[in-house]
Amino acid sequence: MLLLVTLLVAGVGPDLPGPRLREKLGLVKDKPFELKPCTPAPDRMRTVASPRPAPGRWRREPPAPLASAEASAVTVGGEIYVLGGSGQLGRSLATVLRFDPAKRRWKRLADMPKVVDHPLAVAHGDDIYLVGGFKGSAGAVRDVWRYSTTRKKWTRLPSMRWARGALGGGMAGGRLYAVGGVAENQPFVKPVRTVEVFDLKTQRWGDANDMPTARHHFSSAVVDGRLYALGGRRPGNEALDAVERFDPATGEWVRLDPMPQGVGGAKTAVSHGEIVLTAGGDDRAWQDGKGWVTPAVWRWRPPDGPWRRLPDLLQARHGHETAIGAGRIWVLQGAPCPGFGLSSSSESLALPRG
Asked: In angstroms, rounded to a whole number, what is the distance separating the alpha carbons of residues 159 and 20?
């Protein structure tokens, strides 16, 4: 989401920007500090012509207790946890939602110690590691927290060296990786290629080799102990199709064949050695009206398997959450159109076999 809008308006006063620019930026008329959620439209959806989506249909699920986007979700103990995100006016949230995919029920848990959107959440055993993110218009944070799902307790861990939000990463070899991202959630701030690694035993952060492509709002997944970075955005919020793999054993990155459709703001989950990548888009709407979102869902067996289409989502979106539970893949919340948007909708699909 483009929190730059709030900064622009706050910096120039209630009489600026002018009506035409205010409309283009998605500001509510006569309310200079309020972001207007985007409106879904058929001309703002895009998919590739080939391959065609596989047969089947996503199932509509109970909506989340609140509409939000840019949260992060993980599955622990068969339940899905959704942490943080952006709510009304683009404000960062401290909410923790838990979804039981077997019973199809939502529950709101006690809030996190801090508000945050665009964080990285990683599951490890019964714990959730929450890394970085944005604190509204204040920019990215260095914060790292661990949440015990059994003790329901938050513990603050040593901070990263660099503040970063809209980052990727994962857990590999007993180490937590924080990759890429951007220091401010503004469209023309350059993302970084840097990689930090946290040793769970020593509780210390160190450096790893840079990712080849600087990016933010990208998807990441760990398969067979290797970390994959997929898609994302470059300065200007234009979508990328770059795919790269990091091997913790060698410390080296390798560029792989690109994705069939470049997307930013997509989300991934891993099932039976395959990466499932859901939705996303190109978030240039505030600049020139060329932004779009996609309902396309892909399955890919790294490192060189073909990209295969799954059925399209019922609702195209970006900035959503994706998780595995009860033999299904779940897509939750997000923005149903390019730019700033909110949704409480949820849907699921039976996991593909073979």
From this structure: 42
Task: Write out pLDDT tens, residues 182-224.
Answer: 999 887 889 999 999 999 999 999 999 999 999 999 999 999 9
Contacts of 257 (CB under 8 A, 6+ apart): 243, 304
| Cα 309 from Cα 325, distance rounded (Å) | 20
Task: Report how far apart the first and last C-alpha atoms of the chain are (Å, whole number).
Answer: 36
Token pair in block for residue 236 = 């200007």
Beta bridge mates, 153: 148
* Structural contact between residues 143 and 94, judged by C-beta atoms closer than 8 angstroms: no
pLDDT of residue 121: 98
Buried b (16+ CB within 10 A) or exposed e, 157-195: beebebbbbbbbbbbbeeebbbbbbbbbbbbeeebbbbb
CA pair distance 329, 279, nearest whole angstrom: 13
Q: What is the CATH code of the structural domain delimited by 40-350?
A: 2.120.10.80
Domain boundaries, the chain: 1-36, 40-350
Q: Which residues pair with 330 in a beta bridge?
A: 323, 348
Nearest to 97 by CA among 133, 66, 139, 138: 66
What's the CA gap between 125 and 266, in Å, rounded? Answer: 25
Separation of alpha carbons 193 and 181, rounded Å:
8
Neighbours of 92 (CB within 10 A): 25
In sequence order, the 6+-apart residues with CB closer than 8 A to the CB of 21 are: none
**What's the Cα-to-Cα distance from 91 to each of 12, 136, 147, 218, 265, rounded to whole Å?**
20, 6, 22, 21, 18
Closest CA to 126 of 74, 170, 178: 74
Asked if residue 154 lies in contact with residue 201, where contact means CB atoms within 8 angstroms, the answer is: no
Residue 5 pLDDT > 80, yes or no? no
The one-letter amino acid at 344: S
Q: By the 8 A CB rule, do 44 and 337 touch?
A: yes
